[in-house]
Amino acid sequence: MLKNKTGVLITAVLVLLLVANTAAFAQGSGSFYGAEDKTEIEISGEISPELRYFSAADELNENLKGDLEISYPGQKHEFNFLLDFQPGAVEEVEIDELYYKYYGEKYNILLGKDRPIWGKGDQLHVVDNLNAEDMSDFINQDYKDRQIGEEMLKIDRYFRGGNANLEFVYTPDFTPTRLAEDPESRLGDWVINPFAAQISLKNLAAATAQSEAEVIRQVKNSIAEEDNQFALRFTDSRGGTDYGFSYYHGYLREPSYDLKALNTSLANNPVEAPDNLAQIEENKQNFNQALNAADLQYDEVDVFGLELARVIRSVNSRFELAYYRTEDTAGDDPTVRNNKIAWVIGGDRDLPISNLNLNLQFKGEKILDEEEIENNLIQTQTGMQNIDLEYNQDGDYISNRAVLVLEDSYQNEKIIPQLSWVYNLNENDYFLEAALEYELKQDLILTASHKIFSGDAGTTFGQFEDNDYSAISLNYSF
C-alpha cells in the first residue's frame, strides 16, 4: 500500500513540476514550444445527478457523479489530469489519468497514469489486459469509465506514415479488479461473493460480527500483491482491414485459491452462527485461518492476442482472439487456472428503418484441458470430491455471452432511444435495459432508463434479480 502511494506521489510531483516549467517557459520569449505559444490550458468536465428507484426494496437513492479534466494539448508536449468522483463507489474520489506525453516525429512517449484500451471490440475486449476494472457500479458504466488508471511508461513508434504503430507499455504495479464492497451503497447492492459455493456472505458477516464490506476487505487483504506488467502491440491497416497483434505479461485479475485446503479448514474449524462473544472471536480466528489456508493469489499469465476490423457487406465487423497461457500448462494443478482461449466477434450496421443501428457481439472463452480438471478428485467421508477451483458440475467449460444494442435517433440526434440486452447462453441469465436520452439544450442531457435482471441465484445476472430499478439523470458537460 505504501509503495502504491509513493508511486502516485512521485508521478504527481513529476507532472506538477513539468506543468510549472511549462508555464514558466510559455510566458517568456524563449518558449521551447515555438509555434505553441498561444496554446492554453483547457478545463472541462461533467456533472450528473441521478435518482434510482429499486422496486423490490422500495428504495429511492440519490446519486451524484462527475469528472474534472485539466489538460495542456500542445503539439510537442501534452499534460493531462482527470479526476473522477462517484459517491457510493469503493473509491469515491480518484485520479483516473495524470500524465505527460511527448510527441516526436515518429514516436510518442507517455509517462504517468493512463487508461489505454487495446482491441477492436465495441465495449467488449479479450486482448485488453493492462488496466483493472472498477466493479462498484459495473452495470451502469461504459467500458472506459470502468477502467482503473495504471502508472506506466508507454512508447509509441510509428511506421508507414503513421498507418502502423508499435506500442510498448511497462507498469511497475499490478492493480486487481476492484469489487463492490458495500451492499448498502447508494449505487445499489452489486456485491459479488467469491466464495458463494462455500459460505454465504451474510452468514459470514453475522458469524464474525462484521459488516459485509469488512468481510470483503478482509478477503482482499489476504491476497498477496503482485508487481510489474509488460505489453507490446503492433497495429496496421492494409486493404481496408485494420489488424493488430499483441502480447501481455502480467497476472489474471480473478484470484486463484486452494479449494481443498479451504474446505478442510472450514470443516475442521467451522464458522457458524454464534451464541456468545467467545464464539464470535473463535469464528473470526477460524475465518482468518481459512483465508490463510486458501492461499489466494493472482496467477501469472502470458496473453497472445489478435484483433481485426473490416467493413463486410455494410457490417462494421470486429474480431478479437486471445490465448491465455498460465503456469499450469498441463492443466492438472487444481490451485492454478488452466490455459484458455477467449474471443469477441460481431459488428454493427445501420438498418433501412428510421436511423436504427443494430450492434450484435458475442464474447466467449474455452478453458483448455478440461479432462484434467475432471480428474482432480479426492476421497472424502461423503465420497469422491473434485478439488479443482475451475470444476463445473455440468462439465461445461465453454462460456458464451451475446450483447445486443438497438439504437435510434430523432431530431438530429436530440432524442436517442436505446435497447440493450446481455444474455449468457450457458446459464440463461440476462440483463435488459431500455433507455431514452433527450438533449434539453447543448451540453445538457436528460436520461431515463429501466433495468431488469433475471436468472438463477448463482448466475452472473440472476444474483441481482432483486436489483431491478428505474433511473432518471441529468448530465451537464462544461
Q: How would you portray this structure in words?
A:
This protein has helices spanning 2-27, 143-146, 201-208, 212-221, 259-268, 277-294, 370-374, and strands spanning 42-54, 59-73, 77-85, 93-103, 107-114, 150-159, 164-173, 227-238, 241-251, 300-312, 315-326, 340-350, 357-367, 377-380, 383-386, 398-407, 415-424, 429-441, 444-454, 469-477. The chain has an 18-stranded antiparallel β-barrel. It has a two-stranded antiparallel ribbon with strand order 14-15. A hairpin with a 3-residue loop joins β2 and β3. 28% of the residues are buried. With 478 residues, it is of the alpha+beta class. The radius of gyration is 24 Å and the shape is globular.
Structural class: alpha+beta
Gyration radius, rounded: 24 Å
Alpha-carbon distance between the two ends = 35 Å
How much β-strand is present in the residues? 35-45%
Q: What does the main sheet amount to?
A: 18 strands, antiparallel, barrel
With helices defined by DSSP (H or I, 4 residues minimum), what is the helix count? 7
Q: Based on Cα principal axes, name the global outline.
A: globular
- Averaging pLDDT over every residue, what do you get? 90
Give the fraction of residues assigned to helices: 10-25%
Q: How many distinct beta strands? A: 20
Order of helices and strands, N to C? HEEEEEHEEHHEEHHEEEEHEEEEEEE
Unreliable residue stretches: 1-6, 8-36
